[in-house]
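Progress against Task 2.4 (sequence-to-structure conversion) is shown through the following example record, which the project officer requested during the mid-term review.
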Amino acid sequence: MTRLTALVRKEFLQFFRSKPLIILVVWTIAVEIVICAYSITYDVKHLRLAIRDLDGSPASRELVSRFARTEYFDVGARPRSSRALDELLETGGATVGLVIPRDFARRIDQGLTASAQLLVDGSNSNSALIALGYSSRIVGAYSRELDWQRLRAVAGRVGPAPDVRNERRAWYNPALRSVHFEVISMLTLAVMMIAIILPAAGLAWEKEAGTIEQLLVMPFRPWELMLAKVVPTFVVSLASLALALWVPWWFSVPIRGSLVLFFMLSALFLWSSLGLGLLLGTLAENLQQALLLAFFTIVPVLVISGVLVPVESMPGAIQLLSLLSPLRYYLEIALGIFLKGVGIEVLWPQAAAMGGLGLGILVLGLWRFRRQLG
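Structure tokens generated for the chain above:
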């Protein structure tokens, strides 16, 4: 125990003397999560809308006002020609163009189908699809209102017209704020980044500085060296997670479940990340290689785990591949505890899968580290 305590103390001192690693941890938990939460959003708002109203009737102005009253569109330019509208879409002066024909109000008055043209800049397919969805809802609501007005005009002579009301309710995130998901997903990603980079960088730094050879000739058992590499990083990662909880508080993300359960399952997740970090550290010969390997490992895991794109929207082969990512299960656990308030009786399948994968990755990392010590 004396030898192990000395080794663990040495690892803690080495970490706190390494300013780049301290800056990395502070940046990850204090800055990076906030930047991502503010910048990454699935709420597309304030799209630039160009209007070409050829009718100029009260009906066409009412349709335009329906777009202007939402936070999704900002009515801007009113081009006088089709060419001017095309130029706005080509140069980025407008994202959406609405063209209302001359006979718009006349066809409505005659009970005929009136049409309006919507032109969307499809260079950003995500924004284009969302803009089409917003526009369809606005035009659909306007069309239904006109239909009800005609029906009431006819039914007013024989009795009241029937009415159907559709009431929608979103569970767990009633305001549908995407920032809740982004904060939680970036929090889980930050935990993984710290737990991978610290052991990988620490082991690579030992090789680069030549101190790993000194450790090998000292009277330390291999398991003592392995524990000395794992335990300090585990403590630092768990402490970083506790400090990073200020971010959900700042963005008013609810914590409906048990924080004790969250930290227990986070500790389970950390072992897989620590094992992966040790594995990368054994493959790298210097600190630069370790950081590059960590970067090229974290990005694919991030993509397939549902942090940026829902797993359900991925191709079938990628969905199967995502089953090998502990981060996928950790993200589901975090969302369940923070937003849904569920407990282990619901999350045990994710915890079991995450624990099994984590154990396998940790054993692989320790095995590789043990071979290098030998």
